[in-house]
Amino acid sequence: MTVKSILVTTVATLENHAANRGEKLLGNASSVKRTPDGKVYVSGQMQRHVLFSAIERLNESDPERGETYVSNGDGISTKIETDLRSDLGGFLDTNLGDYSGRRTAPLSATPAVSLQESKVGQDLLVRLKMSGKDAEKKQALALNEFSEKDEMVMNFHLDIGAVGAVKTFTYEGEAHVATNYVRKIDDAEHARRIRLFLDATRSMVDYANQARNAVTGEPHRVLIVLDPGMSRKAMQYFSSDETRQQRILAELEARGATYFLGDDNDGNGRSVYQAYTAALDALKDGKLYRPEFA
């Protein structure tokens, strides 16, 4: 089987967290983001930030990384040969003025949303008065919202053929007459970047730098799909009932996809660690799609 895309959907427990704060609703109260039906969520932008932070950490410890790096989110380059955020996350450079200034991201992520309605509390923060000139200031108080415990569903998808390649277009007048793919990296680096993506989805920890918000998004349930096509339907797996889950898996099997289920709560099946290990091994042995047509 030739793998054209990878889908990863996970469930992680976030406890006593404010993984993604929103706007201040009333006065000096920092609110937790939540949907209209009361479920706490983490924005897709934050999910991508945490994922690229995990990719950066994994890449830095990889002896095969060469000159590759992950650029800062506020300074993305257009060098997909070396910049992993540029390659996997895309970019838009309005100064170039043509298609070469725009790259659609091969990597995508959904917001992480709680499976059930969340219970949100408030934490009172007090700024201690100090001696000297600070002693004359008024006592500073602030309220921070936090969510007690959420089972968060997280989804990630990767278009394998677009990794390390640039799609170009040929026009004659106003007519589009040809499409070409230009490879910017070799097959070994292509495979390495795909493994980095998959490994990073189980290393979601950088939701905040503050010690008071030390949150982990590491999963205790996972479904990994190595797909010969392009489908995101399996993202609905953990939010579906048992019948629908069975139909989703049956459809994957019928289409020739390979999937790996991991559940740390089930002593009879694969653990999350075992599911990731099996999926990474399958990637090493399988064929990864790279477009060759012009």
UniProtKB/TrEMBL annotation:
Source organism, top-level taxon: Bacteria
Assigned keywords, A-Z: Antiviral defense
Pfam families given in the database record: DevR (PF01905)
Any one GO BP annotation for this protein: defense response to virus
InterPro entries reported for this sequence: CRISPR-assoc_Cas7/Cst2/DevR (IPR010154), CRISPR-assoc_Csp1 (IPR020032)
Classification via NCBIfam families: cas_csp1, cas_MJ0381
Protein task: CRISPR (clustered regularly interspaced short palindromic repeat) is an adaptive immune system that provides protection against mobile genetic elements (viruses, transposable elements and conjugative plasmids). CRISPR clusters contain spacers, sequences complementary to antecedent mobile elements, and target invading nucleic acids. CRISPR clusters are transcribed and processed into CRISPR RNA (crRNA).
Name of the protein described by the UniProt record: Type I-PGING CRISPR-associated protein Cas7/Csp1
Protein's gene: cas7p
